[in-house]
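Table S2 (text version). Query chain:
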Amino acid sequence: HGIEFFGLSDEVRRRRERIKQSHGLQRFAEFIELLAVLADSSDFRLLSNVKLQSFDDEETLAKISGIVDFLNEHYSEAFSMAELCQQVGMSESSFSRYFRRATGNTFTSFVNQLRVHKACLLLMETDRYVTNVCYDAGFNNVANFNRRFLEIKGMTPKEFRQQAKARFGRDT
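Corresponding structure-token output:
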């Protein structure tokens, strides 16, 4: 799922440096100590709530898993649910039902969350204009991008970038 920890930056930085400087069993021990610090932390949040549920029908699960893989690879491209349904040989109503059961999200919600997640990475790792990030993440309308970003992250893309820069000290 990915986890974001708060208030541990200095501690983690020190421990990572000790891990990099050690070798063999000592390195492993340092890593385990870092994991223990993270495990004891109660100030964190999960970055994703996407997980595939189990199905009695392995063939359908494989189809949904294939769609999720496709979405992760092609999130920036234009596609429709109807096109994907055709690829896996499912009706739209069956696909919608199975997709929601498998991921806990509607197809549209899943795609929006995925694209916003990709936009977050671009906002943190590049200095591209927010408008360019919008299109790079697969949105075709800046107003919709800003609306979905605010809905999912609780802040604007610009605010997210500023917060990430302050939190992670990145020069983006």
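Notes on Table S2: The chain has a mean pLDDT of 86. The radius of gyration is 20 Å.
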